[in-house]
Give the backbone structure.
Amino acid sequence: MSQTNSSATGWRGLVADAHLALVFLTRLPLPESGPYQPGALARAMRLFPLAGAVIGLCGGAVFAAAALVLPPLLAALLALLTTLVLTGALHEDGLADTADGLGARGDRDHRLEVMRDSRSGAYGVLAIVFSIALRAAALAAAPSALAGLGACVAAAALSRAMIPAVMQILPPARTDGLGAGAGMPHAGIAASAGVLGCVIAAIGAGMAAPVAIIAAIAASAAMAWLARRWFGGFTGDILGATQQLAEIAILIALAGTWS
C-alpha cells in the first residue's frame, strides 16, 4: 500500500490526500506516490467522503444502467457487487470480525483476540448476509434510476465521513492497532470530513439528506457505544463496522422517504 507526504499543503496536499484516501479505501490501480510518512493517513481521512463518493458513483452507475433492463433488486445487488469488488470488501470484513467479537463469550481481551482471527464465525457470516440484504432491499426501493444513483453516492460518502468522527470520541483499543499505525486525526480533520460528507449527501439525496445524516450519526453513535462497552475503544475492524452500519442506516432512511 502506497503512502503520501503528509507535509504537502494547498492543492498539492489535497491531491496527495485524495490519492491516499483512494489507495487505502479502494483497489483502484493507482500509481505509487512515494515513501510512507507518519500521520499521512490520518490527514487523508478528511477526504474519505470524496473517496466514498467515487465508490458510490461506480455502484450507482451500475444500478442506474441495470435498472433499465432488470428488476430493481437485481440492479441493486449488481451495484453492491461493484462496490465490493472496488473496495475489496474492506469494510464488510471489519463488520464480520466485529460481529464475531461481539458474539464471543469472555472478557475484552478475548473478544479482541477473536476479532484478530481471519476466519469468520457464524455471527460474522450473518452480519455480511444481512448487510448486503438490507442495503439491496433498501436500494431496490428507489423510485427511479437517478434516485438510486444519488442514494449510492450519498450513502458511500456520508458513511465514510463517520470514520474519523468515531476516532475522535473513542480511544484505540490496542496499542498496535490502526490508531498507532495510521495516526489519530485531529478534530479539524474529523469536522472537515463531516462537512464534506454532508455536502455530498445533500447533492446525492437532495431534500432527504437531513434524514440520511441523522441516520448515519445514530448508527455510528450506537457502534461507538458498543465499541466502548465491549472492546474499550476502536480498532480498524470497528471502524469498518461503523461504515457498514452507517451505510445500512442511510439507505434504509432514504427508502423510508421514498415509500
Remarks:
- Confidence is low (pLDDT under 50) at residues 1-8.
- DSSP finds twelve helices and no strands in the chain.
